[in-house]
Design brief:
The protein is mainly alpha-helical. It is built from five helices and four strands.
């Protein structure tokens, strides 16, 4: 299998995985006769990574999504980040990732300490930025896995001597 074919197969598998995850997120908004199993599976899987509080969630068709607004934005941002990274051969830069995640971390910490309650728009913005940053950080490793980049190639930049 050529490197291009492996990369396309990897992209297809990634797209299927993302679609399945979104089905779980959108499960509560399905018509009631189709919701049962998806909602149970969503609660089991997504409840491990998100508090799923309805008052902090986006709503669709009169029901909250399977994850909170910030987690929804992280997933959307991750997808946007993957699309922007597709085919890129840029190295991962941990410092850029930290800059992308820091606003969400600060906002989340201030909310956790009850110093302030962040508005929905800020949860969405910080989640989008963090998700996109994470995708840009992980893309080179994913591309290496599927395209067969030599194992000795340096993929992470930052932190050490340059």
């Amino acid at each position: 299998m050529t490197a291009r074919a492996r990369l396309l197969l990897g992209g297809a598998l990634l797209a299927v995985g993302i679609a399945c995850w979104w089905i779980l997120i959108l499960a509560p908004a399905l018509p009631s006769n189709q919701r049962g199993r998806f909602e149970l599976l969503a609660a089991l899987l997504l409840g491990r990574v998100c508090h799923r509080l309805p008052e902090r969630s986006l709503w669709l068709c009169g029901a909250p999504l399977g994850v909170c607004a910030r987690c929804s934005a992280i997933y959307v941002g991750f997808g946007i980040g993957l699309l922007s990274a597709w085919g890129s051969d840029r190295e991962r830069d941990v410092r850029r990732w930290l800059l992308g995640v820091a606003p969400m971390g600060i906002d989340g910490l201030l909310s956790l300490l009850q110093i302030w309650d962040s508005p929905l728009w800020l949860r969405l913005a910080t989640g989008l930025l963090a998700g996109a940053s994470l995708a840009r950080l992980l893309w080179p490793a994913y591309a290496q896995l599927w395209a067969g980049r030599p194992r000795g190639a340096e993929l992470i930049r930052g932190g050490g001597s340059q």
